[in-house]
Specification:
Elements lengths: L2 E5 L3 H12 L3 E5 L3 H8 L10 H10 L3 E4 L2 H7 L2 E4 L14 H16 L4 E5 L7 H14 L7 E5 L9 H6 L4 E5 L2 H10 L7 E4 L1 H32 L4 H9 L20 H14 L5 H25 L6 E5 L15 H10 L3 E5 L4 H7 L4 E2 L3 H5 L4 E4 L21 E4 L13 E4 L3
Parallel strand pairs: 1-2, 1-4, 2-3, 4-5, 5-6, 7-8, 9-10, 9-12, 10-11, 12-13, 13-14
Antiparallel strand pairs: 6-7
Helix pairs in contact: 1-3, 4-5, 5-6, 9-11, 9-12, 12-13
This protein binds uridine-5'-diphosphate-xylopyranose (UDX).
């Protein structure tokens, strides 16, 4: 059992607080937001994530998980302190370290009072060099101790996917631990003693880079698949899924994350790739490949607009439905959802845009209020000219021709290659990527 403080109780911090407590550790989740802490103390998560409410209750029930607004006290009592605060994007794509700096200063003040060896672990996603060049000096100044002597320092990136974050934290498929020295590494290894999965031990900046490299590669894979889909359309009568299946027979090519669609969104891919590009630019390196992955992603939602215009002609005064507003199926998150640029482009074309999502209607309405929000599928489609499927909710797979009966013109643009073509009957189905 290790005494742990997790600083920051957002998506990452809360999920890890729960997972680490269930793994047998004594955990205190600390945050400056009193409202959040009061809700969590009552066992109520502040955002939706499958399985989180149940596991939070279980973890609190063990007596090993508590929450506090007293960051100094929580850090003072812990052996291992995780920094899991947000690193939001700035205008130029680079990340804002204000929360991380504040957290490091406060933890340093706690460490000044602590008489034993403690380890600080950066879990927030930060550009390589940040832990050594920003976090370490702040900790050393505030604590009056030297990293490597008075305290330990690690970088331990998270790889949580929305929708399966709790499972990803409880059963990670890999652990990447960047450590300042072997004593820091041993301390963090002890935290993950129960996990059976591949581990990679590195220095601090390499671990920071692994996180960005992973997300940049996956995002690039998605853009690659989207480029293939667009080329399949240009060349005619080629199904991009079959092409990817064929590619995947090559043992050097993993076919996962090659599902073509209207682009990638969410809280990580766009933000992390932009941050890496910006970090290169600040150091006079132009990341051409990553810039291309981003620029394709910017225009990919417009493919659906082009396909709709090809099928219908002008979209002016037409009722166009966007089915799926969240950045992916199974989520209520609209951050960087491709439905946002899609809706704005349709509005610019003069279309009457209607949106429907099983979970993200309210969140989307706040971002693009000019889009009419429908409360169910039937009222969304009622009298519509075109329906564009934007994300991959599993229920879109079950759609039948009869579901589109209420449309004025039965034109469906499948932007995620998800509907069952066999059951579309008289619907005019246009599938992105053949
Ligand atoms: C991602 C990473 O998977 C996770 O490891 C990291 O910690 C955070 O970012 P998440 O944002 O939850 O997780 O979503 P993910 O399921 O990876 O999808 C990201 C975006 O790419 C979505 O918009 C999705 O629709 C899109 N995508 C994904 C595709 O278009 N095609 C694919 O084959 C896979």
């Amino acid at each position: 059992m290790v005494r742990i403080c997790v600083l920051g109780t957002g998506h990452v911090g809360l999920v890890y607080s729960v997972a680490l407590a269930l793994d047998g550790h004594e955990v205190c989740g600390a945050d400056v937001d009193a409202k959040v802490i009061s809700s969590l103390s009552r066992g109520q998560p502040t955002f939706f994530e499958p399985g989180l409410a149940e596991t939070l209750a279980d973890a609190i029930g063990t007596g090993r998980l508590s929450f506090s607004t007293d960051i100094l006290e929580s850090a003072l009592r812990a052996d291992v302190i995780f920094l899991a605060v947000g690193t939001p994007s700035r205008r130029d794509g680079s990340i804002d370290l204000a929360y991380l700096r504040a957290a490091a200063r406060e933890v340093g003040r706690a460490m000044r009072r602590a008489s034993r060896y403690q380890v600080v672990v950066v879990k927030s996603t930060v550009i390589p060099g940040t832990t050594e060049d920003v976090v370490r000096p702040l900790l050393e100044r505030a604590s009056g101790k030297k990293a490597g002597k008075g305290f330990g320092l690690c970088v331990n990136p998270e790889f949580l996917r929305e929708g399966s974050a709790v499972q990803d934290a409880l059963h990670p498929d890999r652990l990447v631990i960047g450590a300042l020295d072997s004593r820091s590494l041993e301390a963090l290894d002890a935290v993950y003693a129960r996990q059976v999965c591949p581990r990679l031990a590195t220095d601090l900046r390499t671990a920071e880079m692994v996180k960005y490299a992973t997300n940049a590669f996956l995002a690039t894979k998605v853009s690659f698949a989207n480029e293939l889909a667009n080329l399949c359309d240009a060349l005619g009568s080629i199904n991009v899924d079959t092409v990817v299946e064929g590619m995947g027979l090559d043992p050097r090519i993993n076919p996962k994350f090659l599902k073509a669609g209207l682009g990638f969104g969410g809280s990580c891919f766009p933000k992390d790739v932009r941050a890496l590009v910006a970090a290169g630019t600040h150091r006079k390196y132009r990341a051409r490949l990553l810039k291309a992955a981003l620029s394709l992603n910017d225009v990919q939602p417009l493919r659906a607009v082009g396909l709709a215009e090809k099928a219908l002609g002008s979209l002016r005064a037409r009722r166009v439905v966007i089915l799926g507003l969240a950045f992916k199926g199974g989520s209520d998150d609209v951050r960087e959802s491709r439905a946002i640029p899609l809706a704005r482009a349709l509005l610019r074309k003069g279309a009457n845009v209607v949106g429907f999502d099983p979970a993200a209607n309210d969140a989307f309405h706040k971002v693009v209020p000019r889009v009419e929000i429908a409360q169910d599928l039937a009222s969304a489609l009622d009298g519509a000219d075109v329906c564009i499927i934007q994300n991959d909710w599993p229920q879109w797979r079950e759609l039948r021709a009869v579901d589109f009966m209420g449309m004025r013109r039965g034109i469906v643009i499948d932007g995620r290659r998800i509907v069952n073509r066999e059951t579309m009957g008289a619907v005019t189905l246009v599938v992105l990527g053949g």
